[in-house]
Amino acid sequence: MIRSVEEVLKQEFGKSLSDEGVRMLDPFVGTGNFVTRILQEIKATRLQRKYRNELHCNEIMLLPYYIASMNIEHAYLDRVGEYESFDGICLADTFELGRQASLFAEANSVRIERQRKSEITVIVGNPPYNIGQTSENDKNTESIPVLKE
How far is CA 143 from CA 21, 28, 53, 106, 128, in A? Predict the structure, then answer.
């Protein structure tokens, strides 16, 4: 998916994921797979700027949020050889981001405000497939093929 995004950026906008000003958001980061993959694709000479200023992601559940933070920071460490915390992740509900203030730590509120002010160029990731479900089993039969004799 990341390479597809790169190709569309080049064809349609004449830009690259590594270009300055191309800001990315994963609105439902989960454990951080898309963002860590993006970090592998960014040119090494532009990685620090991208990591510090142009990568954003949100997660509403606490455990995946912490796992994503660790995975993203580790991917960055692997590329540059030194640790730096990732300030682009917010503990937030992306669907409510524009309507309510953060109920969490002040640092999280600052990150949310920074993200709100950013002109996002690219959105990547998987949407939450369970929206509207009241239990894990709701609507599961729709995606399971049934073999008939």
Answer: 39, 21, 39, 41, 15
pTM over 0.85: no
CA distance linking residue 27 with residue 125, whole number of Å: 7
CB 92 within 8 A of CB 99: no
CA angle 2, 72, 124 (to 5 degrees): 30
Are residues 4 and 124 in contact, defined by beta-carbon separation less than 8 angstroms? Answer: no
Q: Which two tokens stand for residue 85?
A: 């915390």
Q: What is the signed CA dihedral for 42, 48, 54, 60, rounded to 10 degrees?
A: 100
- pLDDT by residue (tens digit) across 88-146? 999 998 888 766 555 667 888 889 889 989 999 999 987 666 666 666 565 554 444 44
